[in-house]
């Protein structure tokens, strides 16, 4: 098929009431695992790369890898997304390298660790939206600061995450402010702060409404039914993977992630994109440890990577099925960026003024 924009994919997801997992990638093995899972269940794909991933693999390598995956899996539409862009240059250089979607995270300043004020967030997000929409690419914004309601702190991932203590108000997206933010920026998707955080150590106990504020999602969706919502930090950190990791020589303290049933609840209330990274890392590294512990003389990287890819493939397939993504790839007729640019220019895709969805089938 082809690369698809986030807006077109999430419009289709909204029309058919499903969510799409967004898997972070750094390398070929992760990309192949995701695509094998997607092809097995006919699911569209969001792959995303952080600034850390782009530094690790290089923009040219990532871009060429996606070109190869598009060619290898022609029936699967792929959205390539910049995760947590920190300024205009990060976002626009991603588009130059073939990303069809970018996140401008103006909730933090350019250093990606200092909380920014609301006016800064609106101004920089709107500038990125104007530039991206001009060429047909999509933009995700963030309102509120990602972090733990238990500890009052954010978690760094690939150099991105708030430092220091955060107030309760900072850690929860204000529904009133969300309405104003979407109207002012015209973002295609809105990431919500509601108690999730990066990394494996999200909660010290099974989360409830005090530390995972799903009610925030429900209220924002009630007010902004045409806006696609995004859950960040939404790995579930499965107990079975923790157990395998530790049984194979790891030392991961007991932790809890975001329960799949809570993500499904969010999907019923407008969540269309669900960010997952830790689960994929854990699925792979648990296999690395298992292989290494089982055969101390093994030195062929492929003997580690193949079972790791299989484990990640199985996890991705499970998420496609749980989120309702399975069965939809073949329904989508991908529009080129130029066609999306014309629709943005007409104002028909404005989430507040028009709120029209892209015809995707």
TrEMBL record:
Keyword DNA damage assigned: no
Zinc keyword on record: yes
Cofactor: Zn(2+)
Keywords for the protein's UniProt record, in alphabetical order: Calvin cycle, Glycolysis, Lyase, Metal-binding, Zinc
EC number, UniProt record: 4.1.2.13
Highest taxon listed in the record's lineage: Bacteria
PROSITE patterns assigned: ALDOLASE_CLASS_II_1, ALDOLASE_CLASS_II_2
SUPFAM superfamilies noted in UniProt: Aldolase
Cofactor note: One is catalytic and the other provides a structural contribution.
Pathway assignment: Carbohydrate biosynthesis; Calvin cycle; Carbohydrate degradation; glycolysis; D-glyceraldehyde 3-phosphate and glycerone phosphate from D-glucose: step 4/4
Alphabetized GO MF terms: fructose-bisphosphate aldolase activity
CDD domains in UniProt: TBP_aldolase_IIB
Top-level class of the enzyme under EC nomenclature: lyase
Region forming the signal peptide: none
Reactions accelerated catalytically: beta-D-fructose 1,6-bisphosphate = D-glyceraldehyde 3-phosphate + dihydroxyacetone phosphate
Family per record: Belongs to the class II fructose-bisphosphate aldolase family.
Matches recorded under NCBIfam families: cbbA, FruBisAldo_II_B
UniProt function note: Catalyzes the aldol condensation of dihydroxyacetone phosphate (DHAP or glycerone-phosphate) with glyceraldehyde 3-phosphate (G3P) to form fructose 1,6-bisphosphate (FBP) in gluconeogenesis and the reverse reaction in glycolysis.
Name the UniProt record assigns to this protein: Fructose-1,6-bisphosphate aldolase
Source species: Ancylobacter vacuolatus
Biological classification of the source: Bacteria, Pseudomonadati, Pseudomonadota, Alphaproteobacteria, Hyphomicrobiales
